[in-house]
Amino acid sequence: MVAKMPKRTDIEKILLIGSGPIVIGQACEFDYSGTQACRVLREEGYTVILANSNPATIMTDPDFADATYIEPLTSEVLTKIIEQEKPHALLPTLGGQTALNLAMELVEMGVLEANGVELIGADAEAIATAEDRARFKDAMIEIGLPVPISGVAHSMDDAEKIIEEIGLPVIVRPAYILGGKGTGIAETLEEFNKLASNGLAASPIHEILIEQSIKGWKEYELEVMRDRADNCVVVCSIENLDPMGVHTGDSITVAPTQTLSDVEYQTLRNAAFACMRRVGVETGGSNVQFAVDPATGEFVIIEMNPRVSRSSALASKATGFPIAKIATKLAIGYTLDEIPNDITKKTPASFEPTIDYVVTKIPRWAFEKFPGTPAVLGTQMQSVGEVMSIGRTFPESLQKAIRSLELGRFGLNADNSEVNFQDIDDKELLKQVEVGTPTRLFEVAELLYRGVSIETLHDATGIDPWFLDQMLLIVEERLFLEQQNLKSVSHFSMRRAKRLGFSDCQLAYIWGEEEEAVRNKRIELGVLPVFKTVDTCSAEFEAETPYHYSTYDDDNEVAASDKPKVVILGSGPNRIGQGIEFDYCCVHASFALREIGYETIMVNCNPETVSTDYDTSDRLFFEPLTEEDVRNILEVETESANRANGPGIAGVIVGLGGQTPLKLANSLPENIIAGTSPDSIDLAEDRERWNAVCSQLEIPQPPGGTAVSLEEARAIVERVGYPVLIRPSYVLGGRAMSIVYDDEQLDSAMQELTQQGSLGREGGLSAERPVLVDRFLEDATEVDVDAIRDKNGDVFIGGIMEHVEEAGVHSGDSACMLPPQNLSTTTLATLEEYTNRIAERLEVVGLINIQYVVKKVGESETVFVIEANPRASRTVPFVSKAIGVPLVKVASRVMLGETLAELKDNGGLQSKATGEHVSVKEAVLPFNRFPETDAILGPEMRSTGEVMGIDVTPGLAFAKSQIAAGMALPETGTVFLSLADRDKEIGIETASLLAKLGFTIAATRGTATALNAANIEVIDVIAKIGEKEGTTAIELIESGKIRLVINSPRGRGPRADGDHIRKAAAEQGIPLLTTASAGLALAKGLIDWRSHTLRVRPLQHFHNKTSSQQRLEI
Amino acid sequence: MTEIKQGALVLEDGSLFEGELIGYEPDQGYASGEVVFNTALTGYQEVITDPSYAGQIITFTYPHIGNYGINAEDFESSRPFCRGIIIKDLARRHSNWRSDTNLNTFLVDSKVSGICGVDTRRLTRHIREAGAMPGAFGTANEETLLTAAKNEPGTSNIDLVAEVTCPEPYFVPSTRNNGSHNKKIVALDFGIKRTIIKHLSMIGDVQVVPAWTSAEDILAYEPDGIFLSNGPGDPSSVKKAPETIASLLGKVPMFGICLGHQLLGIAIGAETVKMPFGHHGANHPVKNMITGEIEITSQNHNFAVDPETLNGKASVTHVNLNDGVCQGLTIAEANAFSVQHHPEAGPGPHDSAYLFSEFDQLMDKVNGGQDA
């Protein structure tokens, strides 16, 4: 029946644009889609040119494209790439809003036309129709689809006219903005004026849409696909639990729709197809959003994304239908009926998946890292990650999703964290749930528990009564269970509780028992999980792909297997401090071990990732990463091996997914952990044991100690002196870390730690979880080393990275250079030597990351060790790309028993790229989403993503990294410096370089005095706050002549001095650096940047060239 | 919480599935019928009231059933003809602006029994492997249920149409405002769905007649077109209709859906075969072999026309892309065509609705000028 393959043969070379760094609203879902696209295009025989600035992606692995440009994603850079590579086509629909916007820029600049590049997937006309809100609205009205009443404004005058027409409340949306940034609901005229003026400023085309507010309506999404023969299918329908008013990226969403009858659903389906056809997306996937009035069923179309999106990644994972892969095939000419369904292998992709389970997505936020920003959800997306869960019913799916979040919650309340609500009365709590917040779900459950009616809650929240009743089922079950106990509980009751998604942990809490006792009782009662399959067809056809989820039903579908198995525990939801880098590591392990004959088994619950693509591993378990769920998987896989008389589980990998799997290591049998033992991990983590290791190895550490109270902390300070670095133990991404300079700051820092709150759940203070108080070494250079040690003790140093920002800025937030540029050969040798010693002492088998601080005193440099992590670090993907060695692939084979020597022999480990290129990693921060928060770098990590700059000089590489991170490099004009005293020397060097480049200098009084003394002219001297005369910093910044602000405060705590300067710079969108060292690096970078013409080179070029060849090309 | 009535489903081959009884309490402690599964995500109200399910127990593969309640508009017939429903989870509370009552009340009122809490996926996989088979569920003991299942005749070689066809002819006026020149369509009712009548009445006046109506009586209505409806069971057991159709062929344009399609095939001498577990869902890709376009279709059949037996008397116009099953026929010289799937949807996608327009145009072409 399948016709001849009509793949396009008139194009051979295709340029794919990635989505750049992970930012809020654009995360690793685009690595997932881009990776699928690269694979498809290469399998189909096309030459793939890839541009993406994000090194932590799988797609930028050099073997996923023919030429991989890790270069800044700007139209200038892309023009260079196009001129150099001469691709025949550009596929812009798989790299998020970034790729789409860049494609449009290239079209408008005439670059595509001039170079004969065809846009495939969606043409410019279609993109403009979908993205430009006025055009979209007109197009929908033209085909008779209802849209909210609205008007488009290009000025405040327009805006005022429109508001008179529509009336309040309204929603204001700036055009061409991803993730709903700048969008908001105005209930008052004052709110409206503020939103409108900010929106006009934020939109790249100074356009806002003012729209009738449909807050409170039900929100739906349809993921649709279309091929060149005009065949359309819906891949997945999604219903938002949170009604309109909360951005869909911040909403709890459920697939499929739950409360629409077929008649209503088909109306939306028809509308979605009509929309896609009118917009003109000829091939590929789109996302169409609807709002439905719960009282009348009246619907309006909200928006459509003419590209693969976050929702389509979710839909792909929710159904097993790989939207990005199919979209790519459609873009190169296939029709849906010509593509086989991967899961069934026998049926074509021209169908609509049907599912026999319920999928729930819950976002994860990071408000605790952005003090000053209220934890309130709105029309602007603020979440940094998400989880997805699969259950046979909504209650099961919901509770699984909650425990997947890793927030110390084990379900819908009935756990230790619910005590937080007990002090709040019904009335107050009911008031709280009116607004969407990260905790609303739990508050609603608490109110249901207290007996508040569904009607009352529906009125307060707008959440559909069906969802509320499903939550009530959970609450009622809990009330019932409270009357039971571990002894009395029957098989039937236990099974019903498990079917409603209760975790053993919740049952233990309800009955006041240990989790282990509940587990044993459950097994004794024969209430065991079974694993079902995601198969796109609700079991109508046999599934070939082992993509599983657990539930408490009759039969188990995990097949017997006689291959040696490796279980890889993933990293769970993206959060600040643990993101795509760790997913990259898990994926690499799976690839490497699959290649050498292991059956790889991935466990993860993050729908955005490559790891949860069903063909990354031999088997995929889409499950929460908790002790209970992971042990269940190990048991079922052991049983699978026993049935086939197979060797069973050769190893469980816990060292690649960040803290998430590491925390589980202790609850798993020690003998099945692959690589470094849990005891070694503890040796590095436990402060007392670690100190002993360091003194035994004679490696200096900054002086310090551990404390559980303010008194103890003070005693340590007396011994070591200020400033000190305060670090709670067992936290991620420098959570609540601070540098304190005096008693007052110490008091408040300690108070912060001992208080309950988000940190209370993550850690709190106890003898097991003390706070670390160490002397903070000022003006020292921080260094990161990533290395691999094998079981025989051989060590491979992957890379030594020198941080650009001084010690005190979290390593995840600072830029770093590889190779180091300012360290002596002696120091480098010392670093290698210490790394060897530590790896040996910890008996590491696999990866280790060690953080050092190098303190210069006169001519001599002293190396101090800060901490060692015998596991994959955030920098591993960056290092791998910089040196051309896939570190995780090597490490995972080492963890399973191979030696470095063997790997060198069998080709598993090749030598590092020896070219003289310099790689710079720069962090990307989300401060623009949290305008109330001081945009200062400090010991608490706040970046969401990273970029890589790679070039032949440190200056060029650094400049590229800044452009890639979103900075418009200043060309002329004034630079404003306001520096802490300790930075004055470095400031002089920076200012003189900037002056040489033709910039004029403005500075605050103290800085100006220092600069003047060094014969640097300062044209504007800014008064200190409180001084009556002279220009103020804010006036200067608002004057519009400042192109760059370099402001380093004395301390790095919250409310550090100069916050008014940083706020003003952020508001004006002026590049801001908060360390003097970054300022100097930028000045040096600008010097190199000016003296060279822009060159772009694929990663393969750097990896393959020797140093002598490369030198010729500078 | 309401009282839980534990029960079980037993299939003819002895497979046992535990669950809880819902809906109408079965008279002898059990309900029996042929167990089939439907994979549609929405549309339980339409499915339960579709007469084509006569004699069958419907397993819904989507776990939550009853979420949006039951409304007054989405019935496919005056009452359910199915023998029961099997589901994973019954919504305790429904929510939708159109709903009038909940599913459980409707089941009780219309004397349909159901069983919930069943591992419907295990059941579906079993049917996929072993084929649709008789089963019985209820509160009776396992032995009784097994005997009941074994005594259940299934749907082969039984004329279920007699059970569901209208006893008397009835008239449905056209909803199309076409002056006084409305087309007249005679619809042979083998278990016709209301959505089909709705679609036909958008073309012209519809005269619905019982399945046993003779060709003479049909022609006496002076129809512009004849419609052969959907219906339950084994087409080879339907009495009289094939002969009636054969004698009308070529005289009046004809359009058949589902059972009507199979009967058209039988009327020209083709054979029908029973499929292992049939097609029941709303997501099957069907290729229109004339245009090359793909339609996502609503499906509900256990029998199919064997295209090898057409002997050149009809050509295949539609094919199911999942398994190659014949989904459409045309007999060009007789101005007759038919499809196996459900262009009226109810429930399901509307992709094939164009077939009603084709019927309209066919009548125009054949009766050219008559209408003007």
Short structural description:
Chain A is of the alpha/beta class. Helices cover 37% and strands 19% of the residues of chain A.
**How many structurally independent domains of chain B?**
2
Which class of secondary structure composition applies to the elements of chain A? Answer: alpha/beta
The greatest interface between two protein chains, and residues involved on each side, is:
A-B, 58 and 58 residues
CATH class of the largest domain in chain B: Alpha Beta
Q: Profile the largest sheet of chain A.
A: 7 strands, antiparallel
Strand order of the largest sheet of chain B: 10-12-11-13-14-19-18-17-15-16
Q: What is the overall shape of chain A?
A: globular
Assembly state here? heterodimer
**What is the spatial order of strands in the main beta sheet of chain A?**
14-13-10-11-12-15-16
Number of helices of chain A: 39
The percentage of residues in β strands of chain A lies in: 15-25%
Report the portion of residues of chain B in β strands. Answer: 25-35%
* CA(first)-CA(last) distance of chain A: 56 Å
Query: How many β strands of chain B by DSSP?
Result: 19
Q: How many distinct helices of chain B? A: 10
- How helix-rich are the residues of chain A, as a percent range? 25-40%
CATH superfamily of the largest domain in chain B: Class I glutamine amidotransferase (GATase) domain
CATH topology of the largest domain in chain B: Rossmann fold
Beta strands of chain A, count: 38
Unreliable spans of chain B: none
Largest sheet of chain B: 10 strands, mixed
